[in-house]
Design a protein that fits this description.
This protein has 5 helices and 10 strands. By secondary structure, it is an alpha+beta fold. It has a single domain, classed as 4'-phosphopantetheinyl transferase domain (Ribosomal Protein L22, Chain A, Alpha-Beta Complex). The strands form 3 sheets. The chain has a 4-stranded mixed beta sheet, covered by helices on one side. Strands 6-9-8-7 form a 4-stranded antiparallel beta sheet. The longest helix has 20 residues.
Length: 222
C-alpha cells in the first residue's frame, strides 16, 4: 500500500499547541524545527513529521518508531524498522508518502519563472516538450516535480544530475532501478509527483489531515 498523507499550513498554532506537537518528535528533530526563524517554515517542517506519525499509527507501528529516525550517507531520512517515507512541502501544502517500497515525492507551487534560467536541467526531449506545450509553465513544474521525486526515491538527491534524467515518459530507469511516475491531485496551482518502484496510479490512498482540528488529540491510539 502506498499512502499519501496531506495537510495544509494556514495559520500559526498557539504556542502551547505547537510545543505539544513538537514534544512528539525526537530531540534532534525538535532542535531542527526550533532553528527556523519564520513560523511558517517551522510549521511546514513540523506538520510533515506529524503526517509521518499519523501514517505510522495507521500501520500500527509502536509509538517509539518515530524515535528511530536516521539519515543515510546522502542525508536521506529513513526509519529503522519502519516503512519507507518521503516528505515534501511548498506553499501551504505538506505531503508525506509512506510505502512498503522506496518512494519519493515532490510538491511545487506553480509560480511565474524564467524558464530559460533552467534550460541546463533538461534533456533536449524534455525542453522541446516544455516549449511546445499549450501551457509551458505547467509542463515545466510537472517535469520538475517528477525529477525531484525520482532523485528523492533513489536516495542520492542532487548527486544525480537532473539533466541526465528524462522524465517525459514513465517509467524512468536509473542503473538497476526502475521508477514509475504518478501524480497526487492537490490544487490547480500546485504540482505533486510521486516516484515508486511499482506502478501506482490506482494504489495511492490519499488522506487529508487538519492538525488545527486535532490540536489537542494527536496521541497514539486516537
Amino acid at each position: 500500500m502506498i499512502t499519501a498523507l496531506v495537510t495544509e499550513v494556514v495559520e500559526q498554532l498557539r504556542p502551547e499547541v505547537f510545543s505539544s506537537y513538537l514534544a512528539l518528535l525526537p530531540e534532534r528533530e525538535q532542535l531542527k524545527i526550533r532553528r527556523f526563524v519564520n513560523w511558517r517554515d517551522a510549521h511546514l517542517s513540523l506538520f510533515g513529521k506529524l503526517l509521518l506519525i499519523r501514517g505510522l499509527m495507521q500501520r500500527e507501528y509502536c509509538e517509539d518508531t518515530i524515535r528511530h529516525l536516521d539519515q543515510t550517507c546522502y542525508r536521506r531520512p529513513y526509519l529503522k524498522g519502519g516503512p519507507d517515507f518521503n516528505i515534501s512541502h511548498a506553499g501551504r501544502f505538506v505531503v508525506c508518502m509512506l510505502a512498503d517500497e522506496k518512494v519519493g515525492v515532490d510538491v511545487e507551487h506553480i509560480q511565474p519563472i524564467e524558464l530559460e534560467d533552467f534550460r541546463s536541467q533538461w534533456t533536449d526531449k524534455e525542453w522541446k516538450d516544455i516549449l511546445g506545450s499549450g501551457d509551458p509553465l505547467y509542463k515545466f513544474y510537472r517535469y520538475w516535480t517528477r525529477k525531484e521525486a525520482v532523485i528523492k526515491a533513489d536516495g542520492r538527491g542532487m548527486h544525480l544530475p537532473l539533466h541526465t534524467l528524462d522524465v517525459s515518459t514513465s517509467p524512468v530507469v536509473i542503473g538497476n532501478n526502475t521508477w514509475f511516475l504518478s501524480e497526487v491531485d492537490l490544487d490547480k496551482s500546485y504540482c505533486c509527483s510521486v516516484a515508486t518502484q511499482t506502478k501506482s496510479e490506482v494504489l495511492i490512498d490519499k488522506q487529508f489531515y487538519d492538525f488545527y482540528q486535532y490540536a489537542s488529540a494527536l496521541t497514539y491510539g486516537v
